[in-house]
Write a structure and sequence with these properties.
With 244 residues, this protein is an alpha/beta fold. 27% of the residues lie in helices and 25% in strands. The chain contains five helices and eleven strands; from the N terminus they run ββββαβββαββαβαβα. Homotrimer.
Length: 244
């Protein structure tokens, strides 16, 4: 069963036929919200809003371990994490859809592993390619089937938040090779790898990152871009599920 983790702009997924709501506990605490088990295109899918109901959980306060553990407990076998991001390099402007292929992690003080308390030598995971190749390609194929413009590949820079970045920070990230900036990409991706759940990210660029454009960022502009683009995200996911 596929899971969709919804980010900013996708705290609800209209069109899902909810069959069951699972209020699960985990050894790591409560997930962000109850998991909705639903039908879409005649297939089962799980939905979990990353920031909780009403977008009430800040990026650095999300219980990523509980979210991934609960999804696996619910029977999920693969995950698409939807994310709103800022664009750093020139082709990643507002409203662009992207399937990233790399991550640079700038976060700190987050629980990054299931093995903190009971670590063994074989708990080291290979993270050379942080996103699952088959899931990524399936997303790209679904976009092509719907004639949706999408970019294959980008380096996602995961930052702590919840504040937006300074222009100097974005310049440093550009020098590091980042194309996108977001606050929730890690440790979600690495925890999914530890849980042996194939994971891919589907990102929508909500705004130019700080200092890239001469205009100052406003949440009203970001929300307007997300509202306009979230329909394409839903269409793409529906197509992806249909082609599964």
């Amino acid at each position: 069963m596929l899971a969709i983790i919804g980010g900013s702009g996708l705290t609800q997924f209209s069109g899902l036929e909810i069959i069951e709501t699972l209020d699960l506990d985990t050894p790591f605490g409560q997930p962000s919200a109850p998991i909705q088990i639903a039908q879409l295109k005649g297939k089962s899918v799980a939905f979990l809003p990353r920031h909780g109901a009403g977008h009430r959980i800040a990026p650095h306060k999300i219980n990523y371990r509980a979210n991934i553990h609960a999804l696996k407990k619910a029977g999920v076998t693969s995950i698409i994490g939807v994310a709103a991001v800022g664009g750093i390099t020139s082709k990643y402007g507002p409203s662009v859809l992207v399937v990233p292929d790399q991550i640079i992690d700038y976060t700190h003080s987050r629980e990054h592993t299931f093995f903190s308390e009971q670590f063994r030598a074989d708990n080291h995971i290979d993270f050379t390619w942080p996103y699952d190749a088959e899931l990524r390609q399936a997303l790209l194929n679904a976009a092509q089937s719907r004639n949706l413009s999408i970019i294959d590949g980008a380096t996602y820079g995961a930052v702590q938040g919840p504040r937006l970045e300074t222009a100097a920070e974005i310049k440093r990230m550009a020098n590091d090779g980042c194309d996108l900036v977001g606050m929730t990409g890690m440790p979600e991706a690495s925890l999914a790898r530890e849980a042996e759940l194939p994971y891919a990210s589907l990102a929508i660029v909500a705004n130019w990152a700080a200092g890239v454009s001469p205009e100052l960022l406003t949440m009203a502009q970001i929300q307007q871009t997300l509202s306009a683009g979230i329909g394409e995200i839903k269409d793409l996911i529906a197509q992806f599920i249909e082609q599964m």
